[in-house]
Amino acid sequence: MLTVIIDAFHAMKNISPTNNSQLSKTCLRIDVLQEKVNQTQHQLPKQRLRIAIEQLGNKTIEISLAVINDLEQIAHNHPQYHWIIMEILTTFVRENALYMPQEELTSNLRPKVRADIQAALTVIARRDVNKDPENEQLDLSHTDMRGANLNRANLKQTNLYQANLAGANLREANLAGAILSAANLEGANLYLANLEGTILSAANLSGANLSGANLHRASLYLAGLHGAILNDATLDGANLREAKFSE
Asked: Quick one: which of 2, 85, 203, 209 could link to 75 by a disulfide (CB 3.0–4.6 Å)?
């Protein structure tokens, strides 16, 4: 049943070869869980899940918002669906907030994030991390999340490779161990953020607020830090090799 659900979700957009590889990985993980899920006695949430995925992204933003809210309730009430729903939401974000090269962006560096994208990110950010399976990783790589509100978000060990988070609010966010290589964090608010062990190689942190941030053992190799605010930031053990503090 879940294979049909995910197939319907995949069909909602034209998928590029790069993203198709990512979606294939999601399919494989869901197929592995399919047998266990089918053995559960909760028929009602399975029906709700099927309907939600068929509607997500295919209708108006208002319907997508209602669907995302329903998915969060299912994840909360039925732990066996928690990780599948997180993968569905991250896939939704990746497919609907695709990363664009700098030269293709408009002059507006801080656009308003689409309401349903922000809603999906909010659910991901406040999920019950105790329900996350071991050795799994959220994938929000290659996404355009400029100006997103991720205040106090739990994105520990998340794959944010080449994500565009310019102007995003990441105040007090937990990004410990996250992959932010080549990410754009220009002007982002990272006040008191936990960046312990985070990989920020070649990331753009120009003008970012890193006041009080924990950068213990973070990799800032080749990172751009022009105009970044580093007051009271913890930098012990951080790799600052070839980091750029001026243009």
From this structure: 85
Of 181, 79, 163, nearest to 121 by C-alpha is: 163
C-alpha–C-alpha distance, residues 171 and 195, integer Å: 11
Pair 95, 173 in one domain: no
Q: CA 60 to CA 58: how far, in whole Å?
A: 7
Nearest to residue 171, comparing CAs of 117, 138, 212? Answer: 212
13 by Cβ neighbours in 10 Å (0-12 / 13-18 / 19+) ranks as middle
Measured distance CA(128)–CA(82) in Å, rounded: 9
7 and 123 fall within a common domain: yes
Angstrom distance (rounded) from CA 76 to CA 72: 6
CB 103, CB 133: distance < 8 Å: no
The tens digit of pLDDT for each residue in 120-161 reads: 999 999 999 999 999 999 999 999 999 999 999 999 999 999
123 and 153 belong to one structural domain: no
Domain co-membership, 120 together with 152? no
CA distances from 218 to 104, 176, 179 (A): 30, 9, 10
**How far is the first Cα of the chain from the last one, in angstroms, to the nearest whole number?**
55
pLDDT at 95 over 70: yes
pLDDT, tens only, 143-154: 999 999 999 999
Quote the crossing angle between the two packed helices 2-10 and 17-38, to the nearest 10°: 160
Domain of 41, in residue numbers? 2-129
- Do 78 and 172 sit in the same domain of this protein? no
Q: Is the pTM of this model over 0.85?
A: no
